[in-house]
Amino acid sequence: MSWKASEKLMETIKHxxxxxxxxxxxxxxxQFGEKPSTGTLFRASQFLSEELPIRLAHRVQELQELxxxxxxxxxxxxxxxxxxxSFEELVTLPRPKLSSEVKERLLRPARRHGHKEANLLSKxxxxxxxxxxxxxxxxxxxxxxxxxxxxxxxxxxTRRYFTAADDGLDWPPELSMYNTQFAExxxxxxxxxxxxxxxxxxxxxxxxxxxxxxxxxHNIQAFLDRFYMSRIGIRMLIGQHIALTDQKSxxxxxxxxxxxxKTNVRELAQEAIENARFxxxxxxxxxxxxxxxxxxxxxxxxxxxxxxxxxxxxxxxKNSLRAVVxxxxxxxxxxxxxxxxxxxxxxxxxxxxSDEGGGIPRSAIPLVWTYMYTTVDQTPSLDPDxxxxxxxxxxxxxxxxxxxSRLYARYFGGDLKLISMEGYGTDVYLHLNRLxxxxxxxx
Length: 443
Ligand SMILES: Nc1ncnc2c1ncn2[C@@H]1O[C@H](COP(=O)(O)OP(=O)(O)OP(=O)(O)O)[C@@H](O)[C@H]1O
Ligand SMILES: [Mg+2]
Description:
single chain; alpha+beta; five-stranded mixed β-sheet; 12 helices; binds magnesium ion
């Protein structure tokens, strides 16, 4: 089953990679509405059928141009082919022929909430976690046709995330057929890319071995940040679209796709604590893992993707538990308690995780953010099929926990910081931006 990109496909990809990606904010995704009509979904499919190929094309180009022979590593080649194949599937999916009447209806503003702004989404704002100029595509520049040659200004509205087309009338069956097909294509693509993180990591290992590199340099680190950040964005858009398409089967009023408008921090934190303690007991053969105390007003909730928050909490808690156990020895009867404190502000919800695991030497602080930096002696084997979707690996050992969690935090305008007191313990601050208007960081 070997798929190979044709020369023509690679040319098309190159062409697409000249267009800037369009950033979407959490709030915009929610404004789309939880029960989109066939017409709305169709418009969203149309948006994604342009946006996703652009984002995929950027990654193919970047993988191909990686420096220092990294682009020639077999695992990097595999990942590049997945991106190219998914690109091809999206651009070759046949679109229905629409009558001019239907086309017009699709463009017509919805009159959902009784005012005409219903279809004009609130503007995405600058992501506070992105340094100006860090990424090529920024919200202000979107949609003005950078690089598409027509140089027209003021066409910002041509490739908006979507506009809701919902006039209450029936839509021709071709539209819902296309919607179904499109969602099926997305599901296939999502599955294909499940093990991208592990496979890229594998590629880095191949390169380290071949080139006798001990550590990854600034360039590779920056590439991995961009690459994994872009993957979070692509999967967010895909996951959201799939969930909205089969919304009929779901009825939780607090959910819009995979976004929960009332994500309860306390409940999620409690669950992450239990999971991390369980993994810890399992790993060290403990009867009772070190205790974790949660200080959180039960009413704190905000708009977020619960899966992202669970991931960040689980990763940081695992780190704390490991530090505590290794500092005090698994035979210890009673461990110092790790504290999780949740604060609710107007701008941010901040979660502090304080442990007494001995901290990190100051010289090693920059390293904890580099991929593959770990103080575990034996990195568990990197089986690409192992735990498909993410690095929810046992206890520790890949050196991906912190850097990936920070990307998740930054993706929606938050951040992850770490302050250590060597000889005592570590405080991790997870800032979650609750304004939800900031654009995705785009590359
Ligand atoms: N709370 C903490 N206390 C002390 N050291 C820590 C703490 N959190 C992280 N570290 C150090 O930072 C390193 C990197 O952490 P990170 O979570 O990125 O990777 P890991 O835990 O080694 O592996 P994994 O990818 O499985 O999480 C750890 O190996 C550990 O040395
Ligand atoms: Mg970890």
